[in-house]
Task: structure prediction
Amino acid sequence: MSGATRGARCGFCAGARAIAGREFAAYLDSKIAYVYTIAFVLLANLVFMNGFFLTGTVDMTGFFELMPWLLPVFLPAVAMRLWAEERRTRTIELLLTMPIRPLQAVLGKYAAALSLFLLSLAGTLPIPVMLCFLGDPDLGLIVSGYLGVLLSGAMFLALGMFVSALASDQIVAFVIAALFSSLFVLTGWDAFVAVADGRWPALSLGTLFCEWFSIMPHFEAFVRGVVGLSSLAYLGGLSLLFLWANALALELNRE
Amino acid sequence: MIHVENVTKRFGAVTAVDSVSFAIGEGEVVGFLGKNGAGKSTLLKMLCTWLLPTRGRITIAGHDAAREPLAVRQAIGYLPEHNALYEGMKVDRFLRFAGRLRGLDGARYAERRDWVVERCGLEAVLSRWIHQCSKGYRQRIGVAAALLHDPPVLILDEPTHGLDALQVAAFRQFIDGLRAGRAILFSSHVLAEVTSISQRLLIINDGVLLADTPVATLRAQATARGVDLEEALLDMVRAAGGKS
Result:
């Protein structure tokens, strides 16, 4: 006789792992993963090399300073398909009527997107290897810089995935996520802060946004080699907040 | 196994399902009949926990669909309308994925996979990409994924949609073979299919359940009135204020 308890309950991690595996395989099956990875690695390496040969210093500061401007464009392109594609192909109903929690699906997809991002970052590792051959770079600075890139990227991915859960279309998801991700960077840009402060001196809006909203002060701290608790909490907290909001959005879809 | 009590679903000002109640027990195959937009799919989506009722209560295999959605999902096998599948996966990989989400692994998974592959006749397409499979095979793949964990409740939304007459006949036999120990509810807007497969009919129109009657009783009533079954059902819908 059949019974609801016949199938063993899917453990939280096992379910998330299954989804991560399927999603990562889907990335590898699609052209976008290759286009994204190649474009990201080429652009990051080329821009760094150009600056490196001009300045002639054996460090990666130029490379890390470039990242906040690249990630808000590249990472929404990775995240845009995560839910919008499921909705377009109607597989979202199949997936979310399986005995899994929305958070499992969110974390599984997030892990897949994060893996693709890590793979792209791995493509930039020849830079520190080359620097080690050419001189004696500060490895602590390089590690903390990479940590800053990783945490900022993780936050942009979580944001992009949340937007993908709300948007009806991949392109709409990309545009909105890129816009919001850029705001996190632009509000920390010196020119923006100066203009906003100058326009409303009494409110100091530019400084306010830079200190409370922008990722830039935190990211720049990592590039300087300062791994502060507040920066870790800010970037990690925002990522968790967007992932939780994503799971909540899926849950509310049932209403 | 399936208990639906006064279930209503509203989308804003639109009432898609209005105070529907019925129950389906073990061993029953029940057809859910209604025209397009009558509320069939909305009700099935609530049964499989994809949607929450605005009002009322759904219990599947003893679990409340609103409070214990995971237990309900584990107890049902669901074939959604349109049977959307992951096109970029091979059939074998897709079944493994569905099995892992259902908590099946190792020997248990292999045993269940062999069973559904044999029952659904999927041997020939196991190593094929899903997007390469015919409509008939795709339906079988969807049903195989729904049956993988041996659920006591099977909910199939338009399972014969797009199948030819031979495939529908095969599907009828297939469902007959699954009847023991299960409650099976399937929807269709094709009367002949529903009456040939099920013992009992639920007829819904504009979100309201018009009838919950054994097929044999409906046939007897139609014969007594000197009309065929289809005409009798259309009269029922017309009397309820629908346009048929």
About this structure: The domain at 2-83+152-239 of chain B is CATH 3.40.50.300 (Rossmann fold). Strands of chain B lie at 2-11, 14-24, 29-33, 55-60, 63-64, 76-79, 153-157, 183-188, 200-205, 208-214.
